[in-house]
Amino acid sequence: METAVENYANPKACFFHVLFKASALAFYVLSTLFFDSYVIIFVMTVLLAALDFWVVKNVTGRILVGLRWWNEINDLGESVWKFESLDQQSLARLNKKDSWLFWWTLYLTAALWTLFGVFALVRFEADYCLVVGVCLTLSIANIVGFTRCHKDAKKQFQQFATQTIASRLTSSVQSAFSVV
């Protein structure tokens, strides 16, 4: 009998993808039980969320969904998004469970940070709204980056398919007229 872990192509990447998200969330929730210092809670929670951001953006995004993004400032001072993705054949071979885990945890984490933000607002804890705001911003940045990257990969595939069909059609027409 197979276990759920055996169904994942990259169980270690999946584990660390979830671990970093869960550690930031768990520390935020449980920290008030162990620490009286807001500064420690702020620094550790944001540090864990930043580690999650980096791991997702640079490691698990590549391994689990074959995507990578970054943002650069060009010479004119404008923000330019850059995207990398595997070719369509490689993307098609990616494990569906790995992909499902990646996308669902990405969105679930942002939803949980939003919920924690609402709780902090209701309890009038502006300082904790700041912690949640930083963590939510990092989560949303990854969502926006990977969503744009995924759309860009689809667009590139469609352009490639259109160009391939057009070039084959053109070569077929040329060969038909060259015979005559």
TrEMBL record:
Alphabetical list of Pfam families matching this protein: DUF846 (PF05832)
Chain segments annotated as transmembrane: 12-31, 37-56, 100-122, 128-147
BP-aspect Gene Ontology terms: protein secretion; vesicle-mediated transport
Superkingdom classification of source: Eukaryota
Membrane topology: Multi-pass membrane protein
Location of the protein in the cell: Golgi apparatus membrane; Membrane
Ribosomal protein as UniProt keyword: no
Classification via InterPro entries: TVP23-like
Gene Ontology CC entries for this record: Golgi membrane
Keywords: Golgi apparatus, Membrane, Transmembrane, Transmembrane helix
The keyword Acyltransferase is annotated on this UniProt entry: no
Homology family: Belongs to the TVP23 family.
Functional summary from the UniProt entry: Golgi membrane protein involved in vesicular trafficking.
Protein name per Swiss-Prot or TrEMBL: Golgi apparatus membrane protein TVP23
Organism name: Kalanchoe fedtschenkoi
